[in-house]
Amino acid sequence: MYRYIIRRLLLLIPVMLGVSFIVFSIMFFTPGDPAKIMLGERAPEAEVAALRTQMGLDDPFLVQFFNFVRNAVQGDFGRSLLTRRPVAEELFSRFPATIQLAATAVFIAVAIGIPVGIISAIRQYSFFDGAAMTLALVGVSMPNFWQGLMMILLFSVYLGWLPSSGIGTFWHLLMPAITLGTSSAALITRMTRSSMLEVIRQDYIRTARAKGLDERVVINRHALKNALIPVITVIGLQFGALLGGAVLTETVFAWPGVGRLMVDAIRQKDFPMVQAGVLLLAVAFSVVNLVVDILYAYIDPRIKAQYK
After folding, report:
1. What is the CB-side half-sphere exposure of residue 187 using CA atoms within 13 A?
2. How far, CA to CA in Å, does 249 sit from each of 135, 180, 181, 235?
3. Which of 148, 153, 166, 170 is nearest to 249 (CA)?
4. DSSP string of 209-220?
5. How far is the C-alpha of 81 from the C-alpha of 280, rounded, in Å?
6. CATH number for domain 89-306, candidates 1.20.1090.10, 1.10.530.10, 1.10.3720.10, 3.40.50.2300
7. How many whole angstroms separate alpha carbon 236 and alpha carbon 238?
């Protein structure tokens, strides 16, 4: 197991290099001069040229990429072109807010998705099953930004129950977390139902029922545990996606997370911030996937045996 974890951690190195190269290439060929952005459009050309030389922007592409990777390994992602503060300091000051939002959204999604999926599987083709699957389809299809705007309109503007933006209390967190958690809950519901339907038709489930075990014991102890592998995969992927995909929701609700920071950085061509932000989210997504793979081994002993 430890060898597997070490091997997966080592595989992060080429993944991060690949992500860094792609992001750096996109930002390198994007129109815009970082030196002119820092000094302003009316700055003299001599000052712009001197700053470009100082920042190493006149170097060839591969030289600039090598310098970026070397500095990134040392934790130095440069300074923001807008705030002039260290990029790492800006990112890590915003990252806790993004984790808080993503974790709350996943908690809501799991709290809704797994119970509804289990009941839908047990009561297949019932009214509850049909209604749950219809709502799940609506949840998957509904754009997050539209849902967020409608929630602000209803609960903030018309009813005045919840704050429309910002951070600080649980009530500030509630609407953006529900907005993010809706589509994830729909996916988890569908996956739980599908996985449970496959498991409850197995012979060992029929045997457990034939032995006279209570239906709750059969479902919770025998069926659910074996149906959780694909569900955990979906939950892990959703959490990783929410870390980097909460951009629109954070913008709609003015949530001070990494997503909103990156939107502002892209709009204003803050290249160092964009590069470091994408790299940070890629690392977070890879770590989440590793944690999900490790959880497999503790849920299913057959998978743990493959690591030996």
Report:
1. 21
2. 21, 7, 11, 19
3. 148
4. HHTT--HHHIII
5. 18
6. 1.10.3720.10
7. 5
CB 105 within 8 A of CB 175: no
Cβ proximity of 307 and 296 under 8 Å: no
Of 45, 134, 27, 121, nearest to 81 by C-alpha is 27
The count of other CB atoms within 10 Å of the CB of residue 104 is 19
Strand partners, 178: none
> How many separate helices (H) and strands (E) can be counted in the chain?
15, 0
Query: Is the pLDDT assigned to residue 245 strictly greater than 70?
Result: no
**DSSP for residue 56:** T
242: closest CA among 50, 110, 100, 33?
100
Q: List residues bridging with 86 in a β-sheet.
A: 79
Distance CA 197, CA 184 (A): 20
Straight-line distance from the first to the last Cα atom of the chain, in angstroms, rounded to the nearest whole number: 7
Amino acid 116: pLDDT: 92
pLDDT digits (tens, 9 = 90+) for 62-91: 888 888 888 888 877 878 877 778 888 888
Pull the structure tokens for residue 79: 């300074």
Tokens of 184: 């994830």
| Per-domain boundaries in the chain | 2-73, 89-306
- DSSP secondary structure string, 227-247? HHHHHHHHHHHHHHHHHHH-H
